[in-house]
Amino acid sequence: MAIAGVNSFFLILLYSASRDELTAALDSYGALGTLFTVTVIFFLSLIGMRVLVGWINKKRQHDLLRKKVKYSILLTLIISAYFYVSYSAKVYKRLFDKRRASVIAKIEPAYMLAYGTKADSLTYQEYTLLMEVTGWFPELPSSSTNISYLYAYDGFLPDYTFRLTYEVPLEEEIELIHNDNGSFDQSRSFEIVDGRKVVTYSEGRS
Q1: Fewer Cβ within 10 Å of end Cβ, the chain: N or C?
Q2: Distance (Å, whole) CA 206 – CA 188
Q3: CB of 134 within 8 A of CB of 153?
Q4: What are the DSSP calls for 92-134, one per residue?
Q5: Considering the entire predicted model, what is its pTM?
Q6: Nearest CA to 153 among 65, 28, 6, 53?
Q7: Are 175 and 188 contacting, i.e. CB atoms less than 8 angstroms apart?
Q8: What is the pLDDT of residues 140-191, one digit of tens each?
Q9: Residue among 130, 198, 203 nearest 161 (CA)
Q10: Which of 32, 182, 201, 27 minimizes the C-alpha distance to 115?
Q11: What string of DSSP letters covers the chain?
């Protein structure tokens, strides 16, 4: 149990080191997800170690204590390997991704619902960082400029609103969308302003 507990502590520590103002603002459920993940890993490690210790005892191998500790550590690291790599990569990006500081400076609270954020005048490179952090912001053409978004959500209920505006050259093809499916709606439209297409995308649930 001590090995599994120490492993859980280091995973939580590594995850905490990967978070900053940006992830706190856009990934509000990340901490709960990580807590669930670490708890699952903890119990999987305990089950795996119990099975492993039973097998070692059954084999009546010499130097049982050393073998139990060695194999238990190895099993725990194998179970946790993906998350060590994933969290380490996030720590690296937090420390060395130059886009983060400029994006954090542009993000402001959005008071439309209980929680939310917004940002204006984002570059395409800055917006791709938001896509990476959230995992669900829609992809945009690489020619997009002057990008703005607003994301507001209830937190308790599934209600949310997401709005996105950006500019693209006239030759950029834009697919128009208009879906109104009861509690969920989604739309994309554009207008031509000063020789460029100004695109508006929105989706929401109420």
Answers
A1: N
A2: 18
A3: no
A4: HHHHH-THHHHHHHH-EE--SSSEEEEEEEE-HHHHHHHHHHH
A5: 0.72
A6: 28
A7: yes
A8: 999 999 999 999 988 777 789 999 999 999 999 999 999 988 788 999 999 9
A9: 203
A10: 27
A11: -HHHHHHHHHHHHHHHHH--HHHHHH-TTHHHHHHHHHHHHHHHHHHHHHHHHHHHHHHT-SSHHHHHHHHHHHHHHHHHHHHHHHHHHHHHHHHH-THHHHHHHH-EE--SSSEEEEEEEE-HHHHHHHHHHHS-SPP--TT-EEEEEEEEE-SSSS-EEEEEEEEEETTS----EEEEETTEEEEEEEEEETTEEEEEEEEEE-
Please check whether residue 149 is in contact with residue 122, taking contact to mean a CB–CB distance below 8 angstroms: yes
Q: Dig out the tokens for 195 from the structure.
A: 């020789």
Which tokens is 42 given? 């903890």
